[in-house]
TrEMBL record:
SUPFAM superfamilies, sorted: cAMP-binding domain-like (SSF51206), Winged helix' DNA-binding domain (SSF46785)
Signal peptide (from-to): none
Cyclic nucleotide-binding domain boundaries: 21-137
UniProt keyword terms in alphabetical order: DNA-binding, Transcription, Transcription regulation
Keyword DNA-binding: yes
Protein's recorded name: Crp/Fnr family transcriptional regulator
Length: 232
């Protein structure tokens, strides 16, 4: 148990909100959060589930998605280590409106609703963090509608990769990202083969380099604005 708590503490250190809290509030969160292991392909939560926790990625990679009435899978977001999600459903007290699936073996932290509510009621920094995070997530979802309806696959891959480096939604991301082409396809709503073609094009544009088992971002602003040129 001591080792698990130590790993949890290290995982919380990657988050932005934990650094904002008073020491006694951080301690309360550490004491009441539980950790679960979700194997690759496993569900962290399902659409329609009751919402009892705020959840965060300690280590691994998650995809937030839903299936339309026509059977199309729509990917809303992905979460890497340090990213937390589900605050909107907790605040509205409604059933879960999406599925969250582990794309690889993942350790997930579960903060009980009671702890979340306590921090909401007693911590101004926590409220400020949530306000910024909700604003960032709204901006992300609006941009994803644009990606899906208006952009070609190459641009969609570029913009979806860039979105993974949001400091509020995925604060633990480094420029070297361990991600497979299949996973890039998942988050961009394209096939693995089409993701591979897009990566080759973006590599030729010197926006990223394709490494064994992942990619390295060379020009994040270029990815965010692709295909628009970025001033030197």
């Amino acid at each position: 148990m001591a080792n698990i708590k130590s790993e949890l503490k290290q995982g919380l250190a990657k988050t932005m909100w934990a650094h904002m809290l008073a020491p006694d509030h951080v301690q309360k969160a550490e004491d009441e959060i539980v950790e679960r292991f979700i194997p690759a392909g496993g569900y962290v939560c399902r659409k329609g589930d009751p919402v009892d926790h705020w959840m965060g990625v300690l280590d691994g990679f998650l995809k937030m998605s839903s299936i339309s009435p026509e059977g199309k899978t729509v990917t809303f977001s992905c979460m890497l280590a340090g990213g937390w999600f589900g605050e909107g459903s907790l605040l509205k007290t409604e059933p879960r409106r999406y599925d969250v699936v582990a794309l690889r073996d993942t350790r997930v932290a579960y903060m009980p609703r009671s702890t979340f509510t306590f921090l909401l009621d007693n911590s101004i920094p926590f409220n400020r963090f949530l306000l910024h995070q909700l604003n960032e997530r709204l901006g992300l979802f609006i941009s994803l509608v644009e990606y899906d309806r208006m952009l070609d696959p190459d641009t969609r891959v570029a913009r979806c990769l860039a979105a993974m480096f949001n400091p509020y939604l995925n604060p633990g991301s480094s420029m070297q990202l361990q991600i497979s082409q299949e996973e890039i396809g998942y988050i961009s709503s394209v096939s693995r083969q089409r993701a591979n073609q897009a990566l080759q094009l973006l590599e030729k544009k010197q926006l990223l380099s394709v490494d064994y088992g992942g990619i390295t971002i060379l020009n994040l602003e270029g990815l965010r604005r692709y295909p628009e040129p970025v001033a030197a």
